[in-house]
Amino acid sequence: MQVNQTKSQFVAVASIAAELSAVMEVAKEISLAAANAKAIAFRAGEKAKGFQPITDFINELAKDTIELVNNINEYAFHLYRLTVNEQRMTEACRRFEKVGQLAVGARYADSLATPLQEVRLRTQICHREFIIQVSELLIKLADVMHPARAARVIAANSRIEASQAGEYLQSLQAVAESVDNAAQIINDKVHKCRSALTIINVAE
Amino acid sequence: MRMTKIYEGAYQWIMFGRDVHKPEKIIDTNQYMVRTANRCLLIDPGGIELFAPMLAAVLHHAPVEEITDLFASHQDPDIISSLGLWDQALPNAKLHAATLWEGFLRHFGCETIEYVPIPDHGGVINLGTTELQIVPAHYLHASANFHIYDPHAKILMSGDVGAALEAPGTPVFVDNFDMHVEKMRFFHQRWMPSNQAKRAWIDRVRKLDIDILAPQHGRMFKGDDVKRFLDWFEALQVGIAV
């Protein structure tokens, strides 16, 4: 493993953490929008009867997204720990090799062979685990895309239901827009996470 | 890396320093090793930049698996920022360092090496055939700071006390105390924060039988220069930045 590759891992893992944090914020906004929509639909009564079950769907989607992101955050943190360990071991390999060059002729120079071999092996194991975790994280990120896509469909349905809500039309349309925007943002952020991870895979 | 044997008995003390390949802008440091028949203690093993030349030098005296103990007088990077690398190299080692600094030192990486916390009142490092005393030197300069005293070899490894900032390649022992004083003055006045701590340390150290006072920077003191240093340090006002 090269030093530059470890650096790109740090950048990728940091990017994922930042994007996931943004996804979490947006999911919380959707949850708020759902509560707001529920209150409006309640006030609108019969005029927004079709809208009421939609608000429950929106809330469920927000909850699902938050749960998934929490789960993914744990993966991202584990990836970060693996990257730190790998960086330390990579650096150790580099320095041990330097010791080998400087210790030529030293009585006990050979005693470094075992630690060097072991740290190389640990680095390989660590990197393999990193790659496995990246693959699993890519699958988890695909899971987040599902509620985001569903949210866009719900937003389209919400617009139709809102059109029959009389004086509540504008308020409910605003809710639909808000859900649609949020879903789009989540989609973009998750796409960025996947791109960052794909760069690491390509670097292999 | 220059290697100087400073004690030869049933075991040895070896001083490492004056590395000609040291990057220019990092401070020069002295590292010490106590080598017994089958164990080895590294005292203030040094910064990360020094790891490769230091370990290469150590391998002239001991195999990796016999480096069983590390000691850090305090938490500074020139003392122990190499810890993460030793952690990868040493399968069965202990780090003796202040309880107060454990959470800080672990930032350097300490998962394989066992951290042995030193309480404020000090303790001992048992190397099997010999036992070294851990002498409190708090606030000289770090808030938790320790020195190592070997009553058999009569050596006090005194951390930053006695340190001097000198040109590269300087001799390892003070040869003219009066001329050496100016190389130590600013270092002690500016890095040492407390006259009270200084007096407590001098009272403690005057009771020890010392042939060599071995600081972490600059030259070592031997014979009468040890007493000359204690007298000079006692009279010096420290903590001058406030």
Mean pLDDT of chain B: 96
Task: Determine the fraction of residues in helical runs of chain B and give it as a percent range.
Answer: 25-40%
The amount of beta strand of chain A, in percent, is under 5%
Helix content of chain A: over 70%
Average pLDDT of chain A: 84
Secondary-structure content class of chain A? mainly alpha
Instruction: List unreliable stretches of 5+ residues of chain A.
Output: none
DSSP E strands of chain A, number: 0
The 3D shape of chain B can be described as globular
Largest sheet of chain B: 7 strands, mixed
Count of β-strands of chain B: 13
Oligomer: heterodimer
H/I helix tally of chain B = 7
Largest sheet of chain A: none
Question: What is the H-and-E element order of chain B?
Answer: EEEEHEHHEHEEEEEHHEEH
Strand order of the largest sheet of chain B: 1-2-3-4-5-6-7
Shape summary of chain A: rod-shaped
How far apart are the first and last residues' alpha carbons of chain A, in Å?
Answer: 9 Å
What's the gyration radius of chain B in Å?
17 Å
The Cα radius of gyration of chain A reads: 25 Å
Q: Largest interface: which pair?
A: A-B, 19 and 20 residues
